[in-house]
Design a protein that fits this description.
Elements: E1 3-6, H1 18-33, H2 38-57, H3 60-76, H4 88-107, H5 117-123, E2 124-125, H6 133-146, H7 149-160, H8 165-172, H9 176-190, E3 194-197
Parallel strand pairs: 1-3
Antiparallel strand pairs: 1-2
């Protein structure tokens, strides 16, 4: 019997309203002329960016370094930042993604995706105490690990980071239709082993 994966359970979206984005933009503009104002941005997004990078490295010391590098580059390049109607975090995610890619390209190591086990338990519907659950979790982890990196990136940004397709296309520097296509490929792979509940 196919287990049910409920991807809708992950969609406690972090999407900001236009007013919230506008307020945030005021902080960004202030930080362009006074670096001390950047502290508010750092405090707001440090944990999100740290966890985003940690999923790609599974190494806390390395994640510390890459997170610091991400915020340093953001601060150094802030004057070049152009508002495109997206939350400022999309720009931070883009820098973070580039830093991780540079690390792997330089080290020529296999990429890592490490999703928190509790997040996986959230999406598999099961009855309490079901002895098959561990096996289902293992199948899910194995299936995710088999996904190409570019497909896994979109899946993770969409469901574990709750990013819109517009943000994903900006973060990964691809078209929105390209982001959707990659996500559909991931969903189709999951459907081989699970019944997938998901609405776009």
């Amino acid at each position: 019997m196919l287990r049910i994966i409920d991807l809708n359970a992950l969609s406690e979206a972090r999407h900001m309203t236009e007013d919230q984005i506008a307020e945030e933009q005021k902080i960004v503009e202030a930080a362009k002329s006074d670096a001390r104002a950047f502290a508010a941005i750092y405090d707001r997004y440090f944990e999100q960016i740290f966890n985003f990078i940690l999923r790609r490295t599974d190494d806390e010391a390395l994640t510390d370094d890459l997170t610091s590098q991400t915020f340093l580059k953001a601060l150094q390049s802030l004057k070049k930042y152009e508002f495109r109607g997206l939350p400022f975090s999309a720009w931070l995610y883009r820098i973070a993604s580039n830093e991780v890619n540079k690390h792997y390209n330089k080290k020529k190591r296999k990429r890592v995706f490490s999703l928190e086990e509790e997040r996986l338990f959230e999406i598999i519907e099961t009855e309490d105490g079901n002895p098959e659950l561990d096996g289902q979790i293992n199948i899910l982890i194995s299936t995710l690990n088999d996904l190409p990196t570019d497909v896994m990136e979109v899946l993770e940004l969409r469901f574990f980071e709750e990013r819109s397709f517009k943000e994903i296309s900006f973060i990964l520097n691809i078209s929105e239709s390209g982001a959707k296509m990659r996500l559909y490929r991931a969903i189709e792979k999951l459907k081989k082993y699970f019944t997938v509940n998901w609405k776009e």
